[in-house]
Amino acid sequence: MAVLLDRHTRLIVQGLTGREGTFHAKTAAAYGTQVVGGVTPGKGGTTHEGWPIFNTVHDAVRETGANASVIFVPPPFAADAVMESADAGVALVVCITEGIPTMDMLKAMTFMKEKPTRLIGPNCPGIITAGQAKAGIIPGHICREGRIGIVSKSGTLTYEAIHQLSRQGMGQTTCIGIGGDPLIGTSFIDALKLFKADADTEAVIMIGEIGGTAEQEAAAYIAHEFRKPVVGFIAGQTAPPGRRMGHAGAIIAGGQGTAAEKMDALARAGVHVVKSPADMGAKMREVLG
Amino acid sequence: MKIHEYQAKAVLARFGVPVPRGDVVFSAAEAGEVARRLGGSVVVVKAQIHAGGRGKGGGVKLAKSPDEAEQIARQMIGMTLVTHQTGPEGRKVGRVLVEEGLQIDRELYLSIVLDRASARPVIICSAAGGMDIEEVAAKEPEKILREAIDPGTGIIPFQSRKLAFGMGLASGPANKLVKLLEAVYKAFVETDASMIEVNPLILTKGGDLLALDAKVSFDDNALYRHPDLRDFRDLAEEDPLEVEASKFSLNYIRLDGNIGCMVNGAGLAMATMDIIKLAGGEPANFLDVGGGANAEQIKNAFRILMADQNVKAVLINIFGGILRCDVLAQGVILAVTELGVRVPIVIRMEGTNVEEGKRLLRESGLNFTTADSMGEAAEKVVGLARGK
After folding, report:
1. pLDDT tens for residues B151-171?
2. Which residue of A has its CA nearest to B226?
3. Which residue among B114, B272, B373 sits closest to A102, beta carbon to beta carbon?
4. What is the spatial distance between Cα B97 and Cα A14, in angstroms, rounded to a whole number?
5. pTM of the full predicted structure?
């Protein structure tokens, strides 16, 4: 079953004609995803690598029946692309773009409040449902089908978690990279709710990092609502305060958002928190027996 | 991007926020001139560095005459100012702000930041200004007032009135606060600020509100559309290696330890620092080479890593998704050969084309230590940094 996307999802790529868009459209199709077309304003009516290209998301949805979109559009235009997809009624929008101005995302988030669209990201590696479909840049070949869900602010740490699970002989349902920006469409709690409702997902790995309070909010949710086992890791235990650690959202500001307070909140909520990023897979094996 | 106090005040003034009269100077003689021009019985000389706590560190002084202002500026310019935010090494003062002295009745607090959870800007005010706001929040949380702003409407006057009366302002100053908050909010949105803090916001004995101190930082991702704000960058306030790294789009932050790290992805880079610490070592830096790094980029990264004289060993931790392990290996071999890197290097790589990458490293004839997991890599590099 998995969550968010599967082999029936019909995916368009916004920015398909660009270098990254082309590369990841091909890898998604090779993985088994139904990539049904692309959107590049001004190139509507042409084809690219065999895919029809549309001027607008509205056109693409009408012609292809797309219900999901993945965005590889440069930062100055990415929030616009997100809002266009939401306006066209696309159910799932995955924005990979890193470096979108926060004010642009503020507009996009306000615009989307009344819309049913689910946004994943931005500044994220996207999502993959093992053995079925992917929208984004998570390498398909490292995943295998299984019963663990992953939700993470970080791309390469997600790959690390997948790899450690494989070493323990465990696979994944869906891996969701929610992104490292201050404003993101899908929170830890949103992702956990999806995993809660998914009968195939037996346990969850949750990977957070310094900055903000999303992990603490997730801890409160887990304590009251989430019964499946969760293994957690927080990156940035050694990060200096006041410095932005790569991700726009990864900053300890005014003493808030430290790894210690997040780890503590999660541990008190019953999450199996590991101090070392090398222990995520082994801890999951231990927890599930 | 952080900017100086005088620059922050210039930005706020542009949007109509009242600030004290004054000017920034780079020499003692100029300080005297500015003080003479300002007149009055007292001026304030304020060291301009990108760190708070300047008052306690001796970076803010009153002068009762232009000559005294000149004298103070002479001592301040060139001095190394140590505050609780600079670390023990302190910051060298290159410029000072000379401002008119004002008759202060009350000190208030004002800031705007983004609230992530509600996806709204929030205005925070407090009657307890001039103090460390985190302390106020911890000890007297009831003194912290908050208003979330709907980006569609902007700040609405009733919200400002709530804050004004909540801080105990009389109706005259309350009306002034309504205007001031409108200006501050406009500045926040239109400059793509990530934070504006006015602490203290003062009420003068004459009933005026002014930003006596100001701290503004901007969203780096939006600087492309603000060429005027980009000019505010003061490279003297940044670590030279970090400035160099930024030229190559490398995300590098210098730390105090002796184990250099090179990693792809910000989360994995932080996690690599964490695991080095867990293994008993100290990371010398944070470095994310990004997902699209090529051999040239790896070489630049190595050059910057090795320019830090403290580095005794290097840990390379790469999970190849888009970045292929063979490309990484080529880059590392090229860098080590061309730059003549002498310190021990531990490489842990996984993912796309890992076997080919490992073969290249093995056949290079260079002395690399390899590891199969992050844990093993951390143990090995910590041992090597200790000379074992």
Report:
1. 999 999 999 999 999 999 999
2. A101
3. B114
4. 49
5. 0.94
